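Predict structure. Chain length: 346.
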Amino acid sequence: MKAIVYHGAGDRRWEEVPDPKVQDSTDAIVRVDAVTICGTDLHILKGDVPAVTEGRILGHEAVGTVTEVGSSVSTVQPGDRVLVSCITSCGRCRYCREGMYSQCQGGGGWLLGHLIDGTQAEYVRVPFADTSTHPVPEGVSDEETLMLADILPTGYEIGVRYGEVSPGDTVVVVGAGPIGLAAILGATLYSPARIIAVDLADSRLEAAKRFGADVVLNPERDDVAARVRELTEGLGADVAMEAVGIPATFEQCAEIIRPGGRVANLGVHGTPATLHLETLWIKNVTIRTGLVNTFVTPELLKLLEMGRLDVSRFITHRFRMAEFEEAYDVFAAAEESGALKVVLTP
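Prediction complete.
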């Protein structure tokens, strides 16, 4: 089969690799019917994730058809359409029992495209298939379901749930890429008073409006902290979500949060950021970080099935798998291409 293989910082290739095989009795082999590229893949290609070693197949998001299962798999069978979760769960360890699947001690966590070969391939081996895949609802397309492999659970769980968004809140989302837009979309489910999106790219700010932002700010033109204070009677944001993964945007969230407010960090950080405890300690600010656990995925699938969640607007570009190299170039140049999520199919 062919796959996108990591060969060190800045080097990824669509090349021939061996087909995956069942290695453990809990495995499933899934034919990939739809796959996408994540901002985390770009971080890997920058060298920000040293655990990803040369020769690794990238990718952790896919929808596909089960072709083979191990002897212990009981809830999926060949022919089933499944969503492959970005997080793998053994389902038995302490953390899995608490719903913190990203910290699985039984051999799971963020494996695909990280510690084992991932989904940007024609086939993928999925460990712990019973607890790491979800059936695709009838009448829901592969493309729509694919948006629930990572970005929607991340935006909703780490942004909205961890940020404790409540009706009447002022929510500021710094970074209007796919994860930030997912957080905006998720926040609208909780009826905040206003959602403010912050980004340097006007194309992404326009997208933020379509996803539910009431106010958009560009730091190159706007004094973000002053505008947030102006809109909140001088208090600051109730919830500030960091959705970029660089020090400046995290520090901006800490600057604009009100006393008693919540900062939710969604971004993947590759370099240290300064935590200004000298000003934050006295403000009763809560800061939460996290790798997505995907415990919200069943809830989001139900909303998708019932037509309460419009995720099709995330998809801006479509490619065949043979065009993976071009797809990466388009996704990486999002400011010029306007790419949000790219979808690749066989």
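Summary: Residues 153-289 form a domain with the Rossmann fold fold (CATH 3.40.50.720).
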